[in-house]
Amino acid sequence: MEEINNTYLFDDPLIIAGRKFKSRLLIGTGKFPSAEALQKTIKASGTEIVTVALRRVDLKKPENDSILSVLNPKEILILPNTSGARTAEEALKLARIARSAGLEPWVKLELTPEPRYLLPDPIETLKAAELLIKDGFTVLPYIQADPILAKKLEELGTATVMPLGSPIGSNKGLKTKELIKIIIEQSNVPVVVDAGLGAPSHSAEAMEMGADAVLVNTALADAQDHEKMATAFRLATEAGRLAFRAGLGPQRDTAEASSPLTGFLFNSKNKS
Amino acid sequence: MIDYMKPYSFSDILNKWSSDLIQEIYEGINEDKILHALENDSLSIEDLIALLSPKAVPFLEKMAQKANQLTRWHFGRTISLYTPIYLSNLCASDCVYCYFASHSGIREKRVTLTEEQIREECIELSKKGIQTVLLLTGDAPNRVPVEYIEQAVRIAKEYFKSVNVEVYSMDEAHYAQLAHAGTEGVTLYMETYDKDTYDKVHLSGKKKDYLYRLDALERAGRTGIRRLTCGVLLGLSDWRFDVVWLALHAKYLEKTCWQSVISLSFPRLKHTPPRFKVPHLVNLEKLVQIITAMRLFLPYSPFNLSTRESAEVRDHLIPLGITSMSAGSSTRPGGYKVYQDTTTSQRPVLEQFEIDDHRTVEEVVSAIKAQGYDPVWVDFEPGFIKSL
């Protein structure tokens, strides 16, 4: 296993804003039953980017916090997110709080004005991205699977785009598949599929399509065995990436003969 | 009937869902309808009624399993913690079920905490790690005016990240004052949606105005208050109707105050002043039916459970859909520090109701952890409030 890791992970890093990551599995920290469960998940997943909701953590006393206490900033990038913010100004305020508390100036931009499905507000997200970039932040925006919005954010200078597969916590997988395909095709920045990935197969599917990375939270937090589930997601994400690089054959509805009927046309003696 | 020419109010919806109509639906409930409701992903009011019907009792375990799963999906295995701070026990309304009522608690002391006393209470609670508080008063807007509550919110903001209020219903402009001061949430129970019962149990005072209270949460929501908590006092009226109306209210608030979290509480009326006997006692089995049915109907709504319930009951209810619990509570103004000592010979300060879970904050936290849940101290960033 280690041997394979060395060859296929090191020559294919995920690069976000010039920074290299071996793992293409990002993890959210909400909903975990304990600090131990979160710690096991992080370790087994191999993740190097972990996002943290600023409204949930105590930045002043990280050692007492059930989330921050298990994150080692030397090993992983702590990516603060602005969940709960409803306007661009609120998101900016939150990001600044995180930066002044000593976190790196990276922010996962989440603007979810409606608290039930937590769908992102495209208008405020665009405004906030502009404010945050001007303020020196590296911005990773959580967005609807909207290819036009993705391009506009890229033009503003966001480090990634993070379209949703389905609503947060729904475990429904890639319901927005057709739109995510277009985003992947058109994007010049890494595409991280975020939200709704409820099973390792969903992660694999996103990676096979050519997504650069995936972000998973609920499916990991709610696992009965956190270590096993995190391992499963790690393997699925890597498998999907490998399959994408290997070049998947197209899916067909009918069988295609491997001995074509018109093969004789290419036979040299039949060319005259 | 709903007049579609103008925006409808919740009162129009209540009129449509009369007790006769709900009764008719209850009478038509059979096992098939209950199974249908259990299999559905998004439930109609008819589905909810099926799950609340007496015929659904044999399905309680199935309901509980699904409630557990839905809650875990939306909230994970976490329980948010909060603690109430009673500011005053003065009351100008006469509600027969309440110890604060103007005609109740003659022997005990009535007090309103001074600013300095509020501060003392806050300091005492913040020492215990509390970061989310609920400020409460009686129904006495003349003697405990909005400006007083507003100031209390500002003081509490110095010590806690999330400050919520449970006070008398007020005008929109007054809610705006509280929102501006930094209030995250407003809790206001309708007590009962049944008009006749409401009229009978609220003898006098401003609270007697049913419609003013009915629309209060919507007024609060319009000012940008981020968390609106509704509930009925289980026991006042027939819960099989009140809970349906509560569900309709929550759904209505979701649509009209779409940016606010709509959360629900399930307070069971158990201890009441001598002049009032609880007419529709809700036993534990019924409480479980109510909480699980409501969880299936409102999968993403936070559900709160106070120390009105015993430690044992609260521990059992954690996996059934509860997402938030109070801890280390006192229902008496000054109960944490200023008037904490009840052993002296002076008249004790009147408490609103007798609590049944006397555990400390620490003990509640251990009990939550013992069940494999993570206690959440705060889920709100004060930076969200514009005035700060």
Structure explained in plain terms:
The complex is a heterodimer of chains A (272) and B (388). Chain A is of the alpha/beta class. Chain A contains nine helices and ten strands. Chain A has helices spanning 2-10, 35-45, 88-100, 122-134, 147-156, 177-186, 200-208, 218-221, 226-246, and strands spanning 14-16, 19-21, 25-28, 49-53, 77-81, 106-109, 138-143, 162-163, 192-194, 213-216. In chain A, the strands form three sheets. Chain A has a five-stranded parallel sheet. Chain A has a three-stranded parallel sheet with strand order 6-7-8. In chain A, helix 4 links the parallel strand 6 (106-109) and strand 7. In chain A, helix 3 runs parallel beside helix 4 (122-134) and helix 7 (200-208) packs parallel to helix 9 (226-246). The radius of gyration of chain A is 21 Å and the shape is globular. Chain B contains 15 helices and eleven strands. Chain B has helices spanning 10-16, 19-27, 31-39, 45-52, 60-75, 115-127, 146-157, 172-181, 195-201, 210-214, 216-222, 239-256, 284-297, 311-317, 361-370, and strands at 78-86, 94-95, 132-136, 162-166, 183-187, 202-204, 227-231, 261-265, 303-305, 324-326, 374-376. Chain B starts with 9 loop residues before the first helix and ends in a 12-residue tail after the last strand. Chain B has an eight-stranded parallel barrel, surrounded by five helices. Helices cover 39% and strands 12% of the residues of chain B. In chain B, helix 7 links the parallel strand 3 and strand 4 (162-166). Chain B has 388 residues and is α/β, with parallel strands linked by helices. In chain B, helix 3 crosses helix 4 (45-52) and helix 4 (45-52) runs antiparallel to helix 12 (239-256). The radius of gyration of chain B is 20 Å and the shape is globular. At the A-B interface, helix 3 of A face helix 5 of B.
